[in-house]
């Protein structure tokens, strides 16, 4: 059976058996925080457990590398919405060691796109529209610098109030150990 159909079948039983009941909560985070973190599979359960976070405690925004690549992109919009519409009072940027985005090679990715059937005219059209695919697909060299940059973008964003602490951390994807990079409370003193 194909994966989608297995999921749908499981979901029908999940709903029928009221498996959702232990997860019921409101849309507002109990701990009044929003986390920007990486989509890495190792963090799905590890990060919440390492931080004593349960369902309903926080808003979690995920992308490749916990990076903010544009100050008015969807990641920043999500953080702004969390603060103003969903009662988040603190922002945490949590990247991790051994992140795939620290090893991304845009040239290699473009080659793989071509191998999978993306025609050259698509790349030409995007380039003519002013889209720099090398920049769009680039990662970072230093996890610490990536966290510092994301925190800086958030902290200096014109729509984020100065009263919102913005913290930066790095989690070890094997042990869950957190390394404090930026203490957002210090910037408020």
What is the fold's blueprint, element by element?
Blueprint: H1 3-16, E1 33-38, H2 43-50, E2 58-63, H3 74-84, E3 90-96, H4 106-115, H5 120-128, H6 133-136, H7 143-155, E4 166-171, E5 178-182
Parallel strand pairs: 1-2, 1-3, 3-4
Antiparallel strand pairs: 4-5
Gross CATH architecture of the largest domain:
3-Layer(aba) Sandwich
Strand numbers in spatial order across the main sheet? 2-1-3-4-5
Approximately what portion of the residues adopt beta-strand conformation?
Answer: 15-25%
What gap, in angstroms, lies between the N and C termini? Answer: 58 Å
How many H/I helices? Answer: 7
Amount of helix: 25-40%
Instruction: Detail the poorly predicted runs.
Output: none
User: Helix and strand string, N-terminal first?
Assistant: HEHEHEHHHHEE
CATH class of the largest domain: Alpha Beta
Q: Specify the CATH homologous superfamily of the largest domain.
A: Carbonic anhydrase
What Rg, in angstroms, do the CA atoms define? 19 Å
Q: What count of structural domains?
A: 2
Principal-axes shape call:
globular
Structure description:
There is one protein chain. The chain has 189 residues and is an alpha/beta fold. It has 2 domains: 20-104 and 142-188, 3-Layer(aba) Sandwich (Beta-carbonic Anhydrase, Chain A), CATH 3.40.1050; 105-138, no CATH class. 37% of the residues lie in helices and 16% in strands. It contains 7 helices and 5 strands. The protein has helices at 3-16, 43-50, 74-84, 106-115, 120-128, 133-136, 143-155, and strands spanning 33-38, 58-63, 90-96, 166-171, 178-182. The protein has a 5-stranded mixed beta sheet, with helices on both faces. The protein is globular.
């Amino acid at each position: 059976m194909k994966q989608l159909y297995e999921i749908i079948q499981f979901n029908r039983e999940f709903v029928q058996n009221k498996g959702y009941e232990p997860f019921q909560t409101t849309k507002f985070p109990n701990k009044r925080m929003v986390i920007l973190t990486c989509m890495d599979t190792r963090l799905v359960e590890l990060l919440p457990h390492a931080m004593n976070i349960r369902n309903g405690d926080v808003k979690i925004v995920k992308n490749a590398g916990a990076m903010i690549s544009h100050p008015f992109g969807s990641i920043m919009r999500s953080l702004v919405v969390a603060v103003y519409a969903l009662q988040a009072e603190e922002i945490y940027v949590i990247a991790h060691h051994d992140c795939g985005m620290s090893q991304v090679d845009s040239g290699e990715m473009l080659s793989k796109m071509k191998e999978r059937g993306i025609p050259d005219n698509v790349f030409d059209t995007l380039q003519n529209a002013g889209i720099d695919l090398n920049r769009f697909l680039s990662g970072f060299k230093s996890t610490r610098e990536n966290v510092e940059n994301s925190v800086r973008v958030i902290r200096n964003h014109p729509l984020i109030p100065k009263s919102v602490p913005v913290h930066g951390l790095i989690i070890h994807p094997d042990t869950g150990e957190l390394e404090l990079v930026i203490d957002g409370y210090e910037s408020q003193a």
